[in-house]
């Protein structure tokens, strides 16, 4: 039945409260279960109530071209998707806030638990490097020397320095694969570390 021929739709547009009550009783449960496919139970209840409120408040301006039920379910879906997007933005903001709180430790010169744990992991990984390899790595990544400067100080070729750095980076990538993004940010401020 199209909405033009649907007496409930006509009554709703005219502001009939008993028609609205009938609509609510007929569709609430199925709309709630539909919303639960997108969001948790409590939020589903709230969103479905919001949909009914929006529908009632805009009843005179609503033009439904398909069926009334299709229109209501589309409203529920859109409301749920908007809420999911809003939560994602909020979660991203909260994650960013947590990162900023954590970084406040570094700016204040106080070592956080995460930083101490990373230092320990880095030391253990570096202990697995051969001595020459570790020495070249420290000179390059911690002391900021260029390959040519390292070669001159150690009396080896630039090619040998490059080989030692490649070897040390391979060891670190393997040993610290879970910690690389955080390690790069904390110790090297986004510079090329690995």
Automatic annotation (TrEMBL):
It comes from the Bacteria. The keyword Transcription applies. Residues 23-88 form the RNA polymerase sigma-70 region domain. InterPro entries: RNA_pol_sigma-70-like (IPR039425), RNA_pol_sigma-70_dom (IPR014284), RNA_pol_sigma70_bacteroid (IPR014327), RNA_pol_sigma70_r2 (IPR007627), RNA_pol_sigma70_r4_t2 (IPR013249), RNA_pol_sigma_r2 (IPR013325), RNA_pol_sigma_r3/r4-like (IPR013324), WH-like_DNA-bd_sf (IPR036388). Keywords: Sigma factor, Transcription, Transcription regulation. Transmembrane segments: none annotated. The keyword Transferase does not apply. It holds the Pfam family Sigma70_r2. This is RNA polymerase sigma-70 factor. GO terms for molecular function: DNA binding; sigma factor activity. Residues 120-170 form the RNA polymerase sigma factor 70 region 4 type domain. One of its GO terms (biological process) is DNA-templated transcription initiation. Belongs to the sigma-70 factor family. ECF subfamily.
């Amino acid at each position: 039945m199209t909405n033009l021929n649907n007496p409930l739709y006509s009554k709703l547009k005219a502001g009939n409260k008993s028609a609205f009550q009938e609509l609510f009783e007929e569709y609430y449960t199925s709309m709630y279960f539909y919303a639960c496919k997108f969001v948790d139970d409590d939020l589903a209840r709230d969103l479905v109530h919001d949909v009914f409120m929006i529908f009632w408040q805009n009843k005179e301006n609503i033009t439904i071209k398909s069926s009334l039920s299709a229109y209501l379910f589309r409203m529920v879906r859109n409301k749920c998707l908007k809420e999911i997007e809003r939560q994602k933005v909020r979660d991203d903001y909260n994650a960013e806030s947590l990162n900023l709180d954590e970084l406040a430790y570094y700016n204040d010169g106080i070592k956080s638990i995460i930083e101490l744990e990373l230092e320990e992991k880095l030391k253990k990984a570096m202990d697995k490097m051969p001595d020459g390899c570790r020495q070249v790595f420290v000179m390059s990544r911690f002391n900021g020397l260029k390959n040519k400067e390292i070669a001159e100080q150690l009396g080896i070729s630039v090619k040998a320095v490059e080989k030692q750095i490649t070897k040390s980076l391979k060891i670190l990538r393997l040993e610290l694969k879970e910690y690389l993004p955080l390690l790069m940010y904390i110790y090297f401020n986004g510079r090329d570390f690995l």
